[in-house]
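Summary for the steering committee. One of the milestones for this cycle was to obtain a three-dimensional model of the protein with iron/sulfur cluster bound, which we needed before selecting residues for the alanine scan. The sequence and ligand used are listed below.
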Amino acid sequence: MTTERETAEDFIYATEEFRDSIATVTKEGKRIWIYPKKPSGRFFNYRKLVSYILIILLVGMPFIKVNGIPFMMFNVLERKFVLFSIVFHPQDFHLFLFTMLTLLVFIILFTVIYGRIFCGWICPQTIFMEMVYRRIEYFIEGDWNAQRKLNESPWDAGKMIKKAAKHFIFFGIAVLISNVFLSYIIGYDAVFKIASEPIAMHLGGFIALIVFSYLFYGVFAFMREQVCTTICPYGRLQGVMLDKNSVVISYDWKRGEPRGKIKKGLNTEGQQNSPILGDCVDCGLCIKVCPTGIDIRNGTQLECVNCTACIDACDEVMLKTHRPAGLIRYDSHNGIATGVRNIFTARTIAYSVVLVALVSINFVLLGNRAAVEAIILHTPGTLFQKSEDDIISNLYNYELVNKTGEIQHITLSTSHPQTTIELVGRQELIIPKDSTLSGSLFIRIPNSALKERKTELRILVKSNKEEEITETTFLGPFK
Ligand code: SF4
Ligand code: SF4
């Protein structure tokens, strides 16, 4: 049976024109600067706590090393990636790809079920914007109204001091973020050298630091929500990832509509029992606190970064007007429409199966990863040499990759019983931790022991604890 309140859904979604444009850009394409009201409340306090823990982790992670290996590093310049102190070399690209694929499916699955929760609680852009930069702005310039007035006022000494102080601090934090960001790419020791040694010694690194500092400053001081609404690919993909069962920040239109302001004398219970109006008192506070300038009562929109500010604002209004909290809350469209939450749909089950399969493959691949990877190939342009005592020699190039955090001592032997191996230019094979050793070697076999012109050779590469077999061919004279 359709009640009067259920028809509110039609009312809410009757006009979808707001989806044709974003709230921060005019029809002429000009930016609308958002002055969000200072948020406060239960969710804001939780988010503050989570944000500060994450900032500590984000800043501290580059300093964490396990067995001398960074915990996380994404050295695109040297094509070396470290995840949880597991080093991925170019030879491990398939492993890295699988790990990234797993992460991607996890993010998609998480988004399908829990919507854009990542944006509001975990994304560094939101955390630095809302919990660091915005709070400094509130501290220096005051709440939204004061900020607007300051921006519209003529330039006097007070305004100049406030603006200079704000931008000076903003840029200082951008420099710190830039240092942390570079630490994830080249390691904190390299960043420390750039910062402490003469500029001429690290000109490239110094320029990168300056460029990233200005970039972060630009993002947090000026671009702000535009990053989330127009640049971030994750934000743009929300439309295809969310469905009506995804838990997002939702306005309970069944409870709230038809909205209307409280009028004195209409109802002493604050309209709680009004047969005409819903619980939304149309105060507009949920719009005023929104850092992306949207009205969540219109339904889920791509601009919503799930910051929870509107939940806190509305809960406060509900409290003051003696209504139950949660008019805006975490819920799905179907959850509100039917009163039942259904998280496990065919789509989420399918994604979960793919995720479990990918995680299992990852574990198998990582578990079977060799400590040392060996590539031994014929030196290009060489065939064989024959000595006076009828010994045949083949020249090979080798590359040994130590993927562990300990020094590896390598010994080589082959499947042919009469083989001798001679290293060129070194006595033994010792690979420093997490490094590559390359060079040349001769393999020698008496001509009489060769049955064919081409002999398949299996080379046993013995490291500290493991053995690996690599295959090559040995060339001799026609038989
Ligand atoms: S804050 Fe709550 S009561 Fe006020 S307009 Fe928004 S939804 Fe309605
Ligand atoms: S609609 Fe609410 S949760 Fe979404 S961005 Fe605006 S204030 Fe944050």
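Key point for the committee: Confidence is low (pLDDT under 50) at residues 1-8.
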